[in-house]
Amino acid sequence: MNRVPWARRNLLAEPRRLVAGVAGVGLALMLILLIDGLWAGMRARVTVYEDSAGADLFVAQPGTRNFLGAVSVVPIESVNTVAADPDVKWAAPVRGLFSILDLHGRKVPAYLIGSEPGREGGPWDLASGRLPRSNEEAVVGAVLARRHHLAVGDPVTILGREFRIVGTAGGADTYMTSFVFVTHAATDQLLRAPGTTSYVITRTDRPDAVRARLAAQGFAVLDIDELRENDLALSTRAFEAPIRIILAVAFLAGSTVIGLTTYTSIAERRREYGIVKAMGAGWRRLTFVALGQTMMLALGGVVAGAAFFVAGRALIAWTRPQFAVVLTPTTALRAVGAALLMGIVAATVPARRLARLDPATAYRGG
Q1: β-pairing, 178-183 with 106-115?
Q2: Cα 219 to Cα 63: distance, rounded to the nearest angstrom
Q3: Can you say how many angstroms the Cα of residue 360 is from the centroid of all Cα atoms in its chain?
């Protein structure tokens, strides 16, 4: 009386219940995969500018700790000061600020980047068109363009001033907002702040030495790792606790579905189990039977969850393209581990029911 075939036969005896159980577990795993993937995508997109600008250091106003959400103002002459360091390969000014776009009568938030034509700090991946050359031209994020039906040649109003779209930038959108790129001189005019910039981004092979020398001159100098950590803490801190709660709820839901399906199957066949126990099967043998059923439901849920996840991710990409769902090997292994843990946890109640089962049940009517 092989253990696994017996558990499998009990599950297959009620195909509709089996399908419902697998689907329930699959939906719980889909939720885990989607939430985990959204969280990974959210964290990856928050720091997309720092990751893509090609700089090693960001030189800013003293006290500045972030790129997104910080207000930094330094003299434009700081570019020459930074560039004069013997270990600096290049230095370029970048102005960054949150702004509001007027699109089809709607106010849409965006993060405005001002950079000098031909220098670093502007779009890193053009999906269409070209870079801005004049102070009346702009490049917008590709997701923003798609969501609001913007194309090269269309006008866009930024802070009350009209620009003409000359290109769209791939990878220039986050879950909160999109980047819009204009010339640095255009941001000078918008803010009426000539002779200043927000940051001086720089490339160097000796970031520690350059940082120490610039800090001695009164600048705040942040490396990429520090900026990432600070921006992630600023932008995702409020979401971490709710996401953990949702993941816990999904895990409990999947465990409950597996446990109820297995428990019901065992309850309906208690006479058969009573016979087995009367024939000498111990609690360990019966526990393995319950565990076999829950683990098969869990593994079936993994397959269903993967299919649901593919469909769910496609739906999110179609309806909300600003939300990237990133499936990493770690995320996939975590979901499989969660499914196996669901199976183990869910086996507890059915196993206890079998352990307490009276062998005399086999000889009772009904």
Answers
A1: parallel
A2: 9
A3: 55
8 Å CB contact between 200 and 79: yes
Position 263: which residue type? Y
Assigned token pair, 167: 């290109």
Look at residues 288, 308, 340, 348 and name the one whose alpha carbon lies nearest to residue 24: 308
Residue 186 to residue 189: CA distance in whole angstroms: 5
Following DSSP, what letter does each residue of 146-183 receive, concatenated?
HHTT--TT-EEEETTEEEEEEEEETT-B-SS-EEEEEE
How far is the CA of 95 from the CAs of 85, 99, 133, 157, 187, in angstroms? 21, 12, 16, 18, 7
pLDDT 10s digits, 199-244: 999 999 999 999 999 999 999 999 998 888 888 887 777 677 788 8
d(CA 236, CA 249): 20
Sequence-ordered list of residues with C-beta below 8 angstroms from that of 292, at least 6 positions apart, any chain? 3, 4, 6, 7, 8
Tokens 């029911």 belong to residue: 353
Q: 176 with 110: CB under 8 angstroms? A: no
Asked if residue 182 lies in contact with residue 138, where contact means CB atoms within 8 angstroms, the answer is: yes
Place of tokens 């086996």: 347
- Give domain limits for the chain: 3-46+239-363, 49-233
Going by pLDDT thresholds of 50, 70 and 90, the confidence category of residue 361 is: low
Question: If pLDDT is split at 50, 70 and 90, which confidence band does 4 have?
Answer: very low
**Given pLDDT bands bounded at 50, 70 and 90, which one contains residue 123?**
very high
- Would you say 258 and 293 are in contact if contact means Cβ atoms under 8 Å apart? no
Tens-digit pLDDT profile for residues 242-288: 888 888 888 888 777 777 776 676 666 666 666 566 665 555 666 77
Angle, vertex CA 146, rays to CA 143 and CA 147, nearest 5: 85
pTM of the model: 0.73
Question: Tens of pLDDT along 58-115?
Answer: 999 998 888 887 789 999 999 999 999 999 999 999 999 988 888 877 888 899 999 9
Going by C-alpha positions, the residue among 13, 42, 31 that lies closest to residue 238 is 42
Tokens for 209, please give them: 């030495």
Tokens of 30: 């889909």
CA dist 29 and 320 (Å) reads 21
